[in-house]
Specification:
about 325 residues; MetI-like fold; 2 domains; mainly alpha; MetI-like; two-stranded antiparallel sheet; single chain
């Protein structure tokens, strides 16, 4: 009798549990439907952006198969002859490719060292201004060059630093020796960094300014009362507040480190020559679109993507080891 009662109780408990699970499942589905009905406008607004990334970023990854083919547009993607790793062997044995890689790495390192800290310093300088009118004016002036195309930016620098530019006109009127900075291959890399700083340093301050606005002003006041000077307040309050953002943007920058500005390099390549201005992006352009060697160009582009992904994973792992959140866990 006791055994029968226990069996009945067990069956009742199991039935109750399954019923509860069913109700929980229906409740979960009902909650999701309610959320869909509630947020359908936001989802509809988000759909074009999601479709763009799915089609032109993730869907386009299938095109990397031409890196392993002797791709001929008239034969199509799948009918072109499969050559395996031949394009990569040719690429790794091509001195022009390694010259483009070396130029890319040099310019990327210079941008990382000289450009990356500039928006941080400018954001901290703007944050220290007490008058809002002055701050807004400086921000507007600093943001403006970002909205200019590289065609205009390069033209401005040519009009100022070119062989017949403003600088040489002033030097010529003063009977001094003129310099052609725009056409000098030795000065090309510093010139590129100066152009990037002038164009994008103001725009890069937006995220850092947003992070600085979250710092409690009472911390600065308490530190000042305790005798901390500007440098100690910066080191112990300001810098720790923006450090997670700095690490995050640094990791993202490392993933895109081999993209040093296609338009900027293409527009100035004729002035200084391919030895100074050829980077991976322009190498792919001239090999693929101009030269018609699409498989070789795709192999170079795939190499660039793989290196960028490896740098992101490595930098994110190092950030975790240092106690930072990084891009993902």
């Amino acid at each position: 009798m006791a055994i029968a009662e226990r069996d009945a109780t067990g069956r009742a408990g199991a039935a109750g549990a399954s019923g509860a699970d069913g109700r929980a499942g229906r409740t979960g589905r009902g909650t999701r439907l309610k959320r869909l009905r509630r947020d359908w406008v936001l989802l509809a607004l988000m759909a074009p952006g999601v479709a763009y990334f799915l089609v032109f970023h993730y869907g386009a990854l299938a095109g990397n198969v031409i890196a392993f083919k002797d791709y001929v547009p008239f034969d199509g993607l799948w009918a072109s002859q499969w050559v395996g790793l031949d394009n990569f062997r040719t690429m790794f044995g091509d001195p022009d490719f390694w010259s483009a890689v070396l130029n890319t790495v040099w310019i990327a390192l210079l941008q990382l060292v000289f450009f990356f800290p500039v928006p941080i310093a400018l954001a901290m300088l703007l944050h220290s201004l007490t008058r809002d009118s002055v701050r807004r004016f400086v921000q507007s002036v600093a943001y403006l060059p970002h909205f200019l195309s590289w065609v205009i930016v390069v033209a401005v620098f040519q009009q100022v630093l070119g062989e017949t530019g403003l600088l040489n006109n002033v030097l010529g009127d003063a009977h001094l020796h003129t310099v052609n900075i725009i056409g000098n291959p030795t000065a090309f890399k510093p010139l590129v960094i100066a152009e990037v700083i002038w164009k994008d340093c103001g725009w890069g301050t937006i995220i850092f300014l947003a992070a600085l606005t979250q710092v409690d002003e009472q911390q600065y006041e308490a530190a000042a009362i305790d005798g901390a000077g500007p440098w100690r307040r910066f080191w112990h309050i300001t810098l720790p507040s923006v450090r997670p953002i700095i690490v995050l943007l640094l990791i993202m920058r490392l993933g895109d480190i081999l993209s040093v500005g296609f338009e900027q390099m293409l527009l100035q390549r004729a002035s200084v020559g391919a030895d100074a201005a050829e980077v991976i992006d322009t190498f792919v352009y001239y090999k693929g679109l101009v030269g018609g060697d699409y498989g070789y160009a795709a192999a170079a582009g795939l190499f660039k993507g793989v290196v960028g992904a490896a740098l992101v994973f490595a930098a994110n792992k190092i950030a975790h080891r240092l106690g930072e959140q990084g891009v993902y866990r």
